[in-house]
Amino acid sequence: MTYTAQMLDTYPAEINLEHDRLSHVIDALTSCAQACTACADSCLSEPADELPRLARCIRDNLDCADICTATAAVLSRHTGYDARLTKAQVEAAIQAVKTCGDSCAEHSDQHAHCRLCAQSCRETERALKGLLPLLEPSGKGAQQPHRAAPQQGM
Amino acid sequence: MTYTAQMLDTYPAEINLEHDRLSHVIDALTSCAQACTACADSCLSEPADELPRLARCIRDNLDCADICTATAAVLSRHTGYDARLTKAQVEAAIQAVKTCGDSCAEHSDQHAHCRLCAQSCRETERALKGLLPLLEPSGKGAQQPHRAAPQQGM
Amino acid sequence: MTYTAQMLDTYPAEINLEHDRLSHVIDALTSCAQACTACADSCLSEPADELPRLARCIRDNLDCADICTATAAVLSRHTGYDARLTKAQVEAAIQAVKTCGDSCAEHSDQHAHCRLCAQSCRETERALKGLLPLLEPSGKGAQQPHRAAPQQGM
Amino acid sequence: MTYTAQMLDTYPAEINLEHDRLSHVIDALTSCAQACTACADSCLSEPADELPRLARCIRDNLDCADICTATAAVLSRHTGYDARLTKAQVEAAIQAVKTCGDSCAEHSDQHAHCRLCAQSCRETERALKGLLPLLEPSGKGAQQPHRAAPQQGM
User: Fold this and answer.
1) Rg of chain D over CA atoms, in angstroms?
2) DSSP state, D16?
3) What are the sequence ranges of the domains in chain A?
4) In the B/C pair of chains, how many CB contacts fall below 8 A?
5) D18-135 has which fold?
6) Residue C144 has pLDDT above 70, yes or no
7) pLDDT per residue as tens digits for the range D34-46
8) What distance, in Å, lies between the first and last C-alpha atoms of chain A?
9) Which residues contact B79 (CB under 8 A, 6 or more apart)?
10) Fewest CB atoms less than 10 Å from the CB: which of B61, C56, D16, D88?
11) Where is this region: Disordered (chains A, B, C, D) (predicted)?
């Protein structure tokens, strides 16, 4: 469906991560960002007496959308890979989908868009948590960040 | 695969666009943004003697990624819909995928990532061009923007 | 204050726009994006009986923030400049700050954050409208996009 | 100059952080995002024999721009504040400006845009590190995230 997996396969240098897993994480993040943007907007169109209790949910949606988009971009780049940066951003994304998933889960019974968005957040959280231990340990990375791309010898 | 179509179906007010078509456009945009981000990075990892001729392609990739992401977000919102804004942003996105698709097409024979990215740009261009005439004419919109969401009467 | 003007002055090729004007536009856009993000959030924290009438304002804030951010990024790039793309994105931004400025202006008396945000939108609209006629006409650009950067001869 | 400080002062609920410090951090982040976007583009327009050694710098610029933009947005929101999320994203931003500042610093003698961008990254790093200890400890936040906004009792 998406080009993510194909783009990984045509990257002109080595990527030290399983392509299938990585493309799954990126797709989960972009899909979650869209779901969060749409959920925030759906909340805004709920009836007036419902809207106030959705304010925190909207805020969490907006943070989650911004953070998932940034994280998907970081994970889509492999030139001059720095494990410390990737790790820190993946950890922030795990917290963002956790916070947003929890907020949406509180409204899952009343609002189908919150139920779907919570589901997307949980899937993305699982995908990110599966990726995290595979990222180079920050201790090693801090010494000598791995450079996947051919410009390293220049 | 993505939640886009389901999120449209659970929006709590009316959306004056065919859901299938709209979700296809949004998915094309988010997929194209990712392909462009990945293509820019793949270009950066090409051999030193190849890189200079890819500078414009990288620039076009970056613009296209930013514009597709913003356009997908705009199209994911339906509360207080303003046809003039949607139309103007869709037109900018059509130009962005055209410019980037042309740049990548120049390198399609040498670089598989450019070939894939050009393909994603062309698909997104077709999807956006199919949507454009269905957006309310700006003349009418300028007078009285359609408000899809229930807050209009407040 | 910001680095925008200094970054323009150190760009290694020619930029066919007055640096002062361009840096003013970019700064207006990034400032407006921040104001819109903050205004959306301030609206979310207004009292429950006030919130429903702010739903459209929040939506317009979110669109405006996304579009201003993307437009600032496009205007910050000069390599392989394509006037058609820049023009289309600037036109979309003019509509975004117009739509959002109008929404916020409706609430300027009740909410100081809306008053400030409307002011930022109007300033940005003026700055963008001052830039628009200086961008190369799309007709000429369509034939042969101007390429400011040194890679054009490659 | 920017509206950041004024927007904080008109937020309709309490913000548990010094406004001056917070607006300084947000302004540093948006300014750094712009500098990084511009530096990546300036690198792309350097002469062909210079470009390959800038590939990693460009990549770090792009990550840093994306992460600074997302972090500025998160810090601009106060409704339903979750310290764990803010902390994790600020930590990711500290790493992003560190990585990018280091990359740009390697080229500061040859390229004025890299020197300026490194300077912006270092300033932003200092600002973020000054903010980090003031964010509520994640342990406490994990139990019972502080909710600044009035919707908490709903």
Assistant:
1) 17
2) S
3) 18-135
4) 111
5) Substrate Binding Domain Of Dnak; Chain:A; Domain 2 (1.20.1270)
6) no
7) 999 999 999 999 9
8) 37
9) A41, A44, A45, B13, B148, B149, B151, C55, C56, C58, C59
10) D16
11) 135-154
In chain C, residues with a C-beta closer than 8 Å to the C-beta of A48 are: 51-52
What is the chain A residue with the closest CA to B47? Answer: A150
Phi and psi (nearest 5°) for A121?
-65, -45
Please state, in angstroms and rounded to a whole number, the distance separating the CA atoms of residues D94 and B134.
45
**Nearest CA of chain D to the CA of C93: how many Å?**
17
CB contact under 8 Å between D52 and B48, yes or no, is yes
- The residue among B106 and A1 whose pLDDT is bigger is B106
CA distance C139 to D101: 41
- The contacts of residue B50 (CB under 8 Å, 6+ apart) are B110
Q: Is the pLDDT of residue D83 over 60?
A: yes
pLDDT band at D2 (very low <50, low <70, confident <90, very high): confident
Chains with 3 or more CB pairs under 8 A to chain A: B, C, D
Q: Is D116 in contact with C3 (Cβ distance < 8 A)?
A: yes
CA pair distance A37, B72, nearest whole angstrom: 9
Whether residue A101 is predicted with pLDDT greater than 60 in this model: the reply is yes
- Burial of residue C121 (CB within 10 Å: 0-12, 13-18, 19+) is buried
Q: Which of A46-55, D88-97, D131-140 has the lowest mean pLDDT?
A: D131-140
Q: For residues C41 and A59, what is the distance between their CA atoms, to the nearest angstrom?
A: 7
Closest chain A residue by Cα to residue C57: A44
pLDDT classification of C1: cutoffs 50, 70, 90: low
The structure's pTM equals 0.92
Query: For residue A153, what pLDDT is reported?
Result: 31
Integer Cα distance of D23 and B81 in angstroms: 32
Tell me whether residues C55 and A44 touch, CB distance under 8 A.
yes
Instruction: Report chain C residues whose CB lies below 8 A from the CB of D38.
Output: 3-4, 7-8, 11, 76-77
d(CA B67, CA C17): 22
ipTM of this complex: 0.90
Q: Give the neighbours of chain C: at least 3 Cβ pairs within 8 Å.
A: A, B, D
Type of residue numbered D150: P
Q: Are residues A57 and A43 in contact, defined by beta-carbon separation less than 8 angstroms?
A: yes
DSSP E strand boundaries for chain C: none
Q: Note the pLDDT of residue B122.
A: 98
